[in-house]
Amino acid sequence: MGWFNQVTNAVAGGRRQFAQMSSRKVAEGSMAVAAVVATSDNELELVEQQAVANYIQENPAFSAFDPDQLAQMFETYAQKCLTGGVFGRMTPMAALKKLSKQEAREAIQAGVAIASADEFEPEEKQAIRDICNAVGLSPSEFGV
Question: Which of 71, 76, 111, 136 is the most exposed place for a label (fewest CB within 10 A)?
């Protein structure tokens, strides 16, 4: 029985570790999507920053993370998007491509929430479409 319990505990520990890794990837992907969407019109508005802050605070999936670290992650991605020229989206998009389709769906929800904070602008819709196409999801799943 001792051996069986050890194996069971090891498997459970591996699952917990995998879930934490997956959650970290989704959190990073969510901040990447939020940054791409929030900066899609080449500016970062206060209402969008506030929407990201609210999303971080209200999303139960993020409760295991330091909100300041998530905010810093968002800011880093946003600055890359704003100052990186043609290559600005490469880093956030690379974070998204590490996600499974289900994880990407979760992350894209962050972008939709941020875009909905004010008026869902055409540039934001296009950003969501671009993100969906990059990860192999249909934009129609998100109403764009």
Answer: 136
